Amino acid sequence: MNNFEKIINPDVYYEEIKRNKNIIMYGIGSRARQTIAFLKEKGIIPIEVCDGNEKLWGQIFDKGYVIRSYKEIKERYSDYCIVLSVAINNALEIINDLEEGVSYYHVCNPFKIENGFLDYHDFLNSCKEYEAICDILQDEKSQNIFIENINYKLTGNLLRLQKLEDGNTFFDERLLRNRNDSEYIDVGAYTGDTMCRFLEYDGKYKKIVAIEADRGNFDALRKFVCYGKIRDAILVNCGVWSEKTTMKFYTTDQNADLNYDMPNFYRRTKEQADNKTLDRCTANGIMETEEEMEVDTLDHLLADEYPTIMKINAMAADLPILKGAEHIILKCRPDIILEYGVRPSYLIDEIKYIAGLHAGYRFYLRQKNIYKDSKTVLYAIGSDRHE
Fold first, then answer.
1. E strand or H helix at 377, and its extent?
2. Burial 108-134 (b: 16+ CB within 10 A, else e)
3. How far apart are the C-alpha atoms of 53 and 232, rounded to whole Å?
4. DSSP structure class, residue 99
5. In DSSP terms, which residues pair with 364 in a beta bridge?
6. How far is it, in rounded angstroms, from Cα 373 to Cα 11?
7. pTM
8. Among 163, 194, 198, residue whose Cα is nearest residue 179
9. How many CB atoms lie within 10 A of CB 221?
């Protein structure tokens, strides 16, 4: 496939970075903590680190780096390059403030749970499967986004993919049909942020079912629905998985005040949270917690529902949640919205699973700037809904 000629060999990208004389890593938050070890494995050894948070200046990062301001970096070096190890919106702001002519690169962990990037040799060995997924996508725009998403997963560079953004909501009206009688399922409802955007999309909806696992975030969601007088909304405080079982859940002990946005079934809060969240935890005596949580399937939770739109954004639990929704998908054929490829295996397995249900879905990818992050969004559109 000609599209695959655009795939970047990550070693070429890293070698270009290594050719620079003085490598400065900009950003020392959760993304940097996840990225620094990988950089060193590739022989990319930053000579300095800097950050825009003046409270961090002078502190030690990664057992040896003194955190400096960018102003100090400019005073110390006349010839340098910047490796941006920050979220994409922060990276774009930093780029605007860099000295003219300074080379810069974006290297940031592209996955929600795993530390590291898509292995190039694994990709080559599975190239036929990736090509098959690309062929399933319905339009050239989706295929271009797919290729650039793979490049991002291989290199950690989101700058190319970010340029393909075309909106700031999960609810793309050019793909979804505004039915004015939607039954919307929001899995990973958080505090109601996506529900707000849904209300903009379909103000004449029939029903909303919002599911949030974290108790603190659920309390904020409940208040949002109450004070916002959101009609016909059913709220469910429950974890969702591929089967009814008990799982370990990582969050904080006072999340009703913090509203930590990355509680999950995989990683401790200290490993996952950004510096701002960790600082607030320290300042307010908030502790990370591990709790045993009973989880259920969408097939059970939605047994009496008839959803038309289902958004799943649940900190890398998306594919197990889909597998626990097989009956409801086959019965109702809702339009399905996911953040695409948040784990390496999901790059193939998400679309492969839905397509394997033989429910007549069409698949599209779009790049959206949602919650100050550039996300690749997968749309599985029921064939009887698309116009």
1. strand 373-382
2. bbbbbbbeebbeeeebeebeeebeebb
3. 44
4. P
5. 379
6. 26
7. 0.94
8. 198
9. 27
Torsions phi, psi for 261 (to 5 deg): -95, 10
Alpha-carbon distances, residue 294 vs 187, 305, 323, 357, 377 (angstroms): 16, 21, 17, 27, 28
- Which positions ≥6 away from 45 have C-beta within 8 Å? 23, 39
Provide φ and ψ at 37, rounded to 5°.
-65, -40
Each residue's pLDDT expressed in tens, for the chain with a length of 387 residues: 468 999 999 999 999 999 999 999 999 887 788 888 889 889 999 999 999 999 999 999 988 899 999 999 999 999 999 999 999 999 999 999 999 999 999 999 999 988 889 999 999 999 999 999 999 999 999 999 999 999 999 999 999 999 999 999 999 999 997 677 899 999 999 999 999 999 999 999 999 999 999 999 999 999 999 999 999 999 999 999 999 999 999 999 887 778 888 899 998 888 888 877 888 888 888 899 999 999 999 999 999 999 999 999 999 999 999 999 999 999 999 999 999 999 999 999 999 999 999 999 999 999 999 988 999 999 999 876 444
Sign of CA dihedral 233, 236, 239, 240: negative
Task: Give the 3-state secondary structure of residue 286.
Answer: coil
Contact between 293 and 247 under an 8 Å Cβ cutoff? The reply is yes
Task: Round to whole Å and give the CA distance between 299 and 142.
Answer: 29
φ/ψ of 131, rounded to 5, equals: -65, -40
Backbone dihedral region for residue 371 (phi beyond 0: left; psi -120 to 50: alpha; all else: beta): left
Which of 170, 164, 166 is CA-nearest to residue 186?
Answer: 170
Q: Which amino acid is at 375?
A: K
Q: How far apart are CA 188 and CA 265, in angstroms?
A: 13
